[in-house]
């Protein structure tokens, strides 16, 4: 797969959208075509990364306008990029209601002002939301994904952060998205919809990276055995449909030579050995020993998917977290990630958005900087 050697050279400086909690824009506009035929601006070319990039995500997720107004201060942080929320866009993409390309452009346009800052590897968040049965029409959701990808690329974003958790209703329920279908038929149509979604984004914005919070591994029961040495909540069976959708995205990434990163949301990993084992499973173990990767994809899976990791600033499933553990966990994640580490924070306000109420202590900032500079 070409992107593991070449796509790191294609780093798009820009914006991230995390808006699921904003109000929908109800303007009535024409549905954008799923395949954008106008010329798309070339991605910003950066030097190849010598170490995985450290991204910031969390409760203090900023809007494009906030990033534009505070770009210089944010660039002084220990992060290489930030996940951004797009009000009225981020939670309106995976829907049957059309999302206007012009509206997405208007919301994301302020991010252009931040393109020249050091913190340039920015992502726009898109949330998984209920979009009806997969056996029905998927034209509008596909068009919406293409629109947000195009707008994000024009605003200088490196990619789309696709948060696949169901915050807004049952996005992946087998009985909601696959009524009257057999399990095999449901898996096939979910893969097809995932592939259409991925193709729509990369056709609208060549060079775009799609980073997902979880990968298909979370939908494979074998993951529970593979990660037996760390606390792990196995919910693979109710999430089977989501896994097949993500497999379809990976298949489309392979077919188009585009960039797909598995975010590796495994918040209980701490030691080098735990990260090493998780990396091995997400990279090569899943396609060779798991059930969810189809035979035709197994040989190319590891070359297509860039394994990344998420790190959480609170205790999780009995695993503690403090400033010292924050630093060492980030260091270990950076040492074992292929592409990105995204720091997900809920304890402190790192940017000055006002939420959470407590500003980040300097000790946490210093620990983060030491972790990023440790390699």
Describe, in plain words, how this protein is organized in 3D.
This protein is 37% helix and 11% strand. Residues 1-49 have low confidence and may be disordered. The protein has 375 residues and is α/β, with parallel strands linked by helices. The longest helix has 22 residues, at 183-204. The protein has a single domain (3-372), classed as TIM Barrel, CATH 3.20.20. Strands 7-6-5-4-3-2-1-9-8 form a nine-stranded parallel β-sheet. The protein has helices at residues 3-6, 64-69, 71-75, 101-108, 139-154, 174-177, 183-204, 222-226, 240-256, 272-289, 295-304, 323-336, 362-372, and strands at residues 53-58, 81-84, 123-127, 159-163, 209-212, 259-262, 305-307, 309-312, 340-345.
Run of helices and strands: HEHHEHEHEHHEHHEHHEEHEH
Q: What strand order characterises the main sheet?
A: 7-6-5-4-3-2-1-9-8
Structural class: alpha/beta
Count the DSSP helices: 13
Work out the strand percent. 5-15%
Count of folded domains: 1
Radius of gyration, in Å, reads 19 Å
- End-to-end separation: 26 Å
Q: Could you give a quick summary of the protein structure above?
A:
By secondary structure, the protein is α/β, with parallel strands linked by helices. The protein has 13 helices and nine strands. The chain has one domain (3-372): TIM Barrel.
Summarize this structure as a short list of keywords or feature phrases:
single chain; TIM Barrel; 9-stranded parallel β-sheet; signal
Fold topology:
Elements: H1 3-6, E1 53-58, H2 64-69, H3 71-75, E2 81-84, H4 101-108, E3 123-127, H5 139-154, E4 159-163, H6 174-177, H7 183-204, E5 209-212, H8 222-226, H9 240-256, E6 259-262, H10 272-289, H11 295-304, E7 305-307, E8 309-312, H12 323-336, E9 340-345, H13 362-372
Parallel strand pairs: 1-2, 1-9, 2-3, 3-4, 4-5, 5-6, 6-7, 8-9
Helix pairs in contact: 4-5, 5-7, 7-9, 9-11, 10-11, 10-12, 12-13
